[in-house]
Each structure stands twice: as C-alpha cells, then as structure tokens.
Amino acid sequence: MPQDFIFSLVSFLGIVISGLAYDPLDPDGNITIKWDILNWTSDGYEGTVSVINHQKYRQVGHPGWTLSWTWSGKEVIRSIWGAQATDQGDCSGFRMATIPHCCRRDPAVVDLLPTMKIDQGVPNCCRGGLIASRLQDPEDAVSMFRVRVGMAGRSGRTVRLPRNFTLLAPGPGYTCGTAQKVRPTRFLTPDGRRATQALVTWNVICTYSQFLARKAPACCVSLSAFFSRSIVGCPACSCGCRGDAMDRGSCVEGDLESATPRPTSGDSKPPLLRCTDHMCPIRVHWHVKHNYQKYWRAKITITNFDYLSNYSQWSLVVQHPNFENLEQIFSFNSRPISPYASFNDSALLWGVKNYNDLLIQAGLLGNVQSELLFHKNTSSFTLEKGWAFPRRVYFNGDDCIMPPPNAYPMLPNKGLR
Fold it and tell me: CATH top-level class for 214-407?
C-alpha cells in the first residue's frame, strides 16, 4: 500500500478523533452547569448557578460564556445577581412594582464585567465570562451567579427542571445534555465548622467538539532543526486557502499598522489574516536548537497572524515522548498532563502572568517564545526519523495541523563532517 495513502488515512482518522467530544488527552473534560436551589420563596425559589470548567487545558475566552435554556412552564427570572439576561422579553402582564428581570421563555444569561462586581455579593462572578482551565488556574475555573425564579414550583417534587440548555463559550462547540437531579450540594461555612446543603441540585454536562466550534482548523505547526538547512513550513492550505475569503476572512500582504485589534480572541467576526500559504491565525514553530552530551534543547515560537485579535491566557499542549525528562522551561509555565498512569508524554504550556500571557495581534510583537531543556534518556533518545519533533500540538484546546512525517528535517549524510 503506498505510504502517501497510509499517511493520508492516519491524518484523516486523527482529525476525526480529535473533532469528536471525546478527547484522549482529557477524557473526562467537560463544562458542568450546576443548579442549586437554596430556599423557597412565595412563588418559586432562590438559588445559585455555577459554570464549572473541568477541562484540563481548554479555557473560555473573550467575549465569555452565554448560558441559555428553555423553561418547562411559565417561570420568570424575578431577580439576578452576578450576571444578567441579554433580553428582558415581554413583561407587560406584570405590575410596575413587580416587573421581573427577564420574562422570556428562553432566557440567555451572560456574566457581568469586572467593573460591575460592587455589591453583587456573589463569589466567582463578574469576570466578563472568562473561565480558566482547570490546570492553569483552578480558582478561576468556575463562574457563578445567583437567581430568584418566580412562577415555579415550591418544593422538590413540584419544581420543574429547565430544558434545552445551550452553552456558547464563546461560540458554538459545546453540546449540553439534559438536566439531571443529583445529590444536593454541601456547603461549608467560612469557619469550616458547619455544613449546609442545597434543597435540590441538578447538573447539566456540556462537552466540546472542535468540528462544531469552527469550520476550519485554527492553527498549524512548522519545524526546523540545527542539523538541517531546510525549514518545514505548515502544510499549504492548513486552515484555508487564499481564495477562501468567504470562510477565513480577508488576507493582506505585509504588516497592517492601521488595524484596531479586538481585546481578546473569540469574536464571531472573521479574522483579518496576513497572507500565508497556510492561512492559519496561529502558527506554532518547533526548532531543535542544540544537542549536548547529556541534554538537548528545543525552542517554541507561537505567532499570531490575525491583525484583529489578541489571545489572552493562551495555552499550548504538546505531545512528545521526552516530556517525562523535561528539566527546565525558561519563560512559560508548564505542567504535565499525564493522561496515562505510568507514562507522561504530554505537557501543558502557558504564559507567565503580566509577562507573556497575552499573545497580541499580528505585527512586530505578535509572538511569544520559550526554550525547553530536556535530559537525555540514552535508551530512547535519537535525532533520527523525526523523534525530536512533537507528535501532536494543541493551541487553546484545538488540534493543530502537523506537517507530513516524510517532510520532517532529516539528519545529514553520516559520511559528512
């Protein structure tokens, strides 16, 4: 069977697997919506809603999450703290003194901005909908708001669960299941001496699919090495071709000084990309830099080719068999992912806060870079057959397009000095 056909088949299967909700590097990753009813009111209940990110390396970026659902009856949101409904709906049937916050049967709720946190009294609210991944920042991996629901049941037997949950984080990509009643959540008082529990709790599990999130890949990988004069660029048309303006937005030649960047990545508007052969917003370059007696060194450079978007709290996942012997990383944070109990071949990399955790738009400063120092395991280390290059790379949780293995930089002829 021709090698090109085998490679194409393997690449296709890899893309299909990575696009499904199941992630082999994070098999239990999901975003859980936890709805806790804390007390009953005259015509309904009051409770908290938590958006909890259980994913190891996929965060929720700008402009943040949007949570929507459909009421099972005639429920309304009478009051809400730490978030707001985007549309009040038709509340003409209520008296002026009792107009609810939202009368829509299918409300859409967004987080408040940090400037509105004063007097909300809700922990983990008001971050503009941004949620960190579980490994990057566990404390910021949850977002919460408090809600008072009217025209609802007044007991655990009569209250009805909302339906058709939808999570935009910030765009499509997540599919939410049905709400399920679970064991009531327990809460500890600040002094840790008393425990209380919710009256009713239900969970909604939302899983991510790269195929649903975007039509085309968002990143690609290029390679080089000290022992080779050639640079292996991203495969042509990795994320689109120059003629695919309808899919990937416009492309411009050279630097564009007049572009006004969006605050962070995630807007639904098409990117304004620098014209490249790969047409990807993000390129990750891996360079094998040095080969010492007991160590070897690699350099990673992440370049943003989008003139309109910044990437805040970006993350990079690299799968390489030598991460078990990583000695030092010089200007990124790192943490092993360890999807397997006895072997670690993957690491999560992200920027240092207030130093390089913001990957700004295309231009002179539109890149971040770091070097990695690995200890040599003499039983497995080699520079032959592409061993020194990563197997898979993810940027912000999305699988990047890799060059074909037969194009990797090769060692020179052994007869040459």
Answer: mainly beta
